[in-house]
């Protein structure tokens, strides 16, 4: 006895449902590509026998797997297909899921107009699930604000707050207050923003929810950092670190430790900042977060860079460069190679400094950075002068000055002028001429409004000249009206 069409369709529905469950398990196990293939097979079989609703589900699941794998663009295509199939099948549940996911994907992909249109259609399903509605309204608000529709965005966040309060959803209400605070901060209402952030903190604390407390204090830490209140920023990041340690959330722990270290460094608490960065470093290595690891290593190297007996930065600069390459953050390489070159020069490791200056110039070809280029070329001029290549040194100074002028980099121009004094001294210029050049750099800094930085640069170069170019250049930065040229000393 042969099976009829209904039996065939029923068997196919069973097979497709089993394939969907298998695909979900594969994706949850981290086998994204395998799961995507399973969903494609399921959709194909469902379509062949006219199971449109199940085909819609397969397309939606494929979009979910693509989103988890980081392919947001293709997830949008899958969700769009799933929504179309769900409309065709008259399946309201699957259409709601497709539209909700599609709105999130559009927002993440910064296709804000498409996100708004999607949420306008999705709004018909509001009321079925309060938590989903809050999430949708938050994303809708993000899209509206991004297109400059701040009043409409505010209305969506206010409505999200009403829904969360009525449903007693504390975690959702925390998210709403954080979003409201962020919008207020971006519109310059700083006091109101912090009031909302602290409202979110109070709710999280009362709920005794470590995840919420960690999330809120991390946001507060970033906000206080932007406000230049480094003490409060460090305290908030420290509180977030305690929460994430409790949760054993190593990734967010490492991130907040890095930022806590920055706050402590800016407060002059160097030992404490190094302590938290050293806690973050192995976590970032284990997690494979190359970008954050590079930043962590770079900050550690810079923090102790002026300690002449500390050789740890030599390896840290090199490892940070490797980490940035692994992260594809090639724009960070000019800065880190220059810092490494300057560190080597300060220790009279001239051969290594030349190597790193060449790395700077090579990196600038891929990632131009005028601020770094003017300083690297000026340092290169010093290295050339040290090698008695005086003409090349002067040419490099001219190039450095041209770059700084074109970029409007007044501090860079001051640095070039100060380093010119070194090149002049190495070429045997008179005490008076070298001294005059240093004072010219200082005068430029004063006129440009960065006198303190100019004085620091001139002092540093004057010290280098005295150490490397001889006693004839002692006391270059004495009072400008004194002519205390040192008397040559006899031998013995």
Which helices and strands appear, and what pairs or packs with what?
Elements: H1 5-28, H2 32-48, H3 52-68, H4 72-89, H5 92-108, H6 112-122, H7 130-146, H8 150-167, H9 170-186, H10 190-207, H11 210-226, H12 230-247, H13 250-266, H14 270-287, H15 290-303, H16 312-327, H17 333-346, H18 350-366, H19 370-386, H20 390-407, H21 410-426, H22 431-448, H23 451-469
Can you describe what's shown?
The protein is mainly α and 492 residues long. Helices cover 80% and strands 0% of the residues. The protein has 23 helices and no strands. The longest helix has 24 residues. The protein is elongated. The C terminus is likely disordered.
Tell me briefly what this model is.
The protein is an all-alpha fold. It has 23 helices and no strands. The C terminus is likely disordered.
Q: How do the helices and strands follow one another from N- to C-terminus?
A: HHHHHHHHHHHHHHHHHHHHHHH
Pick out the low-confidence regions.
481-492
Instruction: Return Rg in Å.
Output: 31 Å
Number of strands: 0
Helix amount: over 70%
Q: Could you tell me how far the N terminus lies from the C terminus, measured between alpha carbons in angstroms?
A: 120 Å
Give the structural class: mainly alpha
Which geometry do the CA atoms define? Answer: elongated
Biggest sheet, open or closed, and with what strands and sense?
none
Mean pLDDT: 93
Total helix count? 23
Strand content: under 5%
């Amino acid at each position: 006895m042969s099976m009829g069409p209904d039996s065939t369709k029923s068997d196919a529905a069973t097979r497709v449902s089993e394939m969907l469950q298998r695909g979900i398990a594969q994706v949850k196990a981290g086998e994204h590509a395998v799961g995507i293939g399973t969903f494609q097979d399921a959709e194909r079989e469902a379509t062949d026998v006219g199971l449109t609703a199940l085909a819609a589900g397969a397309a939606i699941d494929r979009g979910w797997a693509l989103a988890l794998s980081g392919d947001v663009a293709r997830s949008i295509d899958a969700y769009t297909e799933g929504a179309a199939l769900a409309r065709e099948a008259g399946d309201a549940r699957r259409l709601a899921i497709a539209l909700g996911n599609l709105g999130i994907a559009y927002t993440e992909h910064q296709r804000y107009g498409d996100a708004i249109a999607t949420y306008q259609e999705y709004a018909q399903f509001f009321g079925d699930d309060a938590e989903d509605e809050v999430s949708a309204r938050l994303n809708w608000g993000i899209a509206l604000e991004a297109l400059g529709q701040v009043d409409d965005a505010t209305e969506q966040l206010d409505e999200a707050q009403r829904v969360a309060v009525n449903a007693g959803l504390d975690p959702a209400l925390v998210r709403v207050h954080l979003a409201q605070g962020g919008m207020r901060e971006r519109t310059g209402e700083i006091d109101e923003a912090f009031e909302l952030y602290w409202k979110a903190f109070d709710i999280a604390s009362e709920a005794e929810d470590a995840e919420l407390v960690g999330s809120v204090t991390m946001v507060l830490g970033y906000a206080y950092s932007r406000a230049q209140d480094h003490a409060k920023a460090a305290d908030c990041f420290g509180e977030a670190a305690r929460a994430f340690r409790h949760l054993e959330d190593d990734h967010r722990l490492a991130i907040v430790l890095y930022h806590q270290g920055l706050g402590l460094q800016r407060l002059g608490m160097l030992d404490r900042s190094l302590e938290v960065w050293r806690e973050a470093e192995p976590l970032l290595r284990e997690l494979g977060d190359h970008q954050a690891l590079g930043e962590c290593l770079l900050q550690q190297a810079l923090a102790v860079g002026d300690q002449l007996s500390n050789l740890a930065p030599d390896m840290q600069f090199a490892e940070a460069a490797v980490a940035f390459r692994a992260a594809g953050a090639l724009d960070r390489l000019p800065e880190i190679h220059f810092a490494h070159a300057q560190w080597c020069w300060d220790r009279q490791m001239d051969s290594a400094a030349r190597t790193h200056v060449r790395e700077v110039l090579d990196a600038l070809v891929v990632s131009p950075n005028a601020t770094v280029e003017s300083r690297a070329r000026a340092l290169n001029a010093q290295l050339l002068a040290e090698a008695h290549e005086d003409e090349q040194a002067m040419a490099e100074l001219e190039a450095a000055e041209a770059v700084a002028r074109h970029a409007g980099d007044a501090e860079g121009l001051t640095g070039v002028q100060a380093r010119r004094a070194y090149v002049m001294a190495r070429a045997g210029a008179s005490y008076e001429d070298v001294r005059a050049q240093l004072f010219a750099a200082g005068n430029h800094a004063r006129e440009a409004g960065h006198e303190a930085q100019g004085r620091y640069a001139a002092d540093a170069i004057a010290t280098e000249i005295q150490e490397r170019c001889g006693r004839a250049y002692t006391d270059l930065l004495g009072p400008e009206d004194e002519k205390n040229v040192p008397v040559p000393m006899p031998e013995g």
